[in-house]
Amino acid sequence: MRILTVALPALLLVACASTARTRDPQPLQLPANERVNVSWADPASFSEHSCDFAPGGRDTEWVRDLAKYTRDRAEKNLPAGAHLDVHFIDIDRAGECRPTMGAEQIRIIRDMYPPRITLHYRLSGNGVAAADADAKLSDLAFMMNPPGLPGNSDPLRYEKRMVDDWLRKLLGKR
After folding, report:
1. In whole angstroms, how far apart are CA 13 and each of 4, 18, 19, 144?
2. What is the C-alpha separation between 164 and 72, in angstroms, rounded?
3. What is the β-pairing status of strands 36-40 and 82-92?
4. How far is CA 28 from CA 31, 37, 99, 111, 148, in A?
5. pLDDT tens digits, one per residue of 85-123
6. How far is it, in rounded angstroms, from Cα 76 to Cα 56?
7. In the 8-state DSSP scheme, what is residue 3?
8. pLDDT beyond 90 at 68
9. Where are the domains of the chain?
10. Are the C-beta atoms of 126 and 79 separated by less than 8 Å?
11. Is 18 a residue whose pLDDT tops 50?
């Protein structure tokens, strides 16, 4: 009986480890697009300490959501014949995670925890000035600026607003 008590947890640990190794890692980019491509560094290297944890590890679906938003907004404002590549190097979302009494964490939004994004972009094509540069986005007054419509509960509303401001400056308002 004692052998079973020691051997069973060891077998379960080995089985879990082999399952984790065989999982396909998610690609760190959106599917290729003719006009706008968006990719990102490994979210584990981000300054962001996400509150969103999945059973198998850190949930990084929010990165994909922000990438999709960036692509969709850029496509709407990109001049015909132009191409934009965006690579998110680092993201630190607005707020800070705090543990609760349970297993979950909550995000505390205060002005002392502003959103920050570091990205690299390459803009090329007809009708635009070519650019290949890094950009550091931050919004130190994010709590003073309304996040859009009243009742906006999008967890990425502050980061999306920064992306909108950056694209407006880069591509001009259309």
Report:
1. 14, 9, 10, 49
2. 11
3. parallel
4. 10, 11, 28, 30, 29
5. 999 999 999 998 887 777 677 888 888 999 999 999 999
6. 36
7. H
8. yes
9. 26-171
10. yes
11. no
Rounded Cα–Cα distance for residues 30 and 82 (Å):
18
Q: Which two tokens stand for residue 18?
A: 């082999």
Q: By the 8 A CB rule, do 71 and 30 touch?
A: yes
Q: Which amino acid appears at position 102 of this protein?
A: G
> CA 68, CA 119: separation in Å to the nearest integer?
15
Beta bridge partners of 5: none
Run of H or E including 97: strand 96-99
Q: How far apart are CA 121 and CA 73, in angstroms?
A: 15
Least confident of 14-18, 40-44, 56-60, 143-147: 14-18
Residue 167's closest CA among 127, 119, 126?
Answer: 119
Say how many C-beta atoms besides its own lie within 10 A of residue 74's C-beta.
24
Residue-level length of the chain: 174
Say how many Å lie between the first and final Cα of the chain, rounded.
73
Retrieve residue 63's tokens: 């990165």
Reading the block at residue 30, the tokens are 């959106």
Question: Would you say residue 22 has pLDDT above 70?
Answer: no
- pLDDT above 60 for 13: no
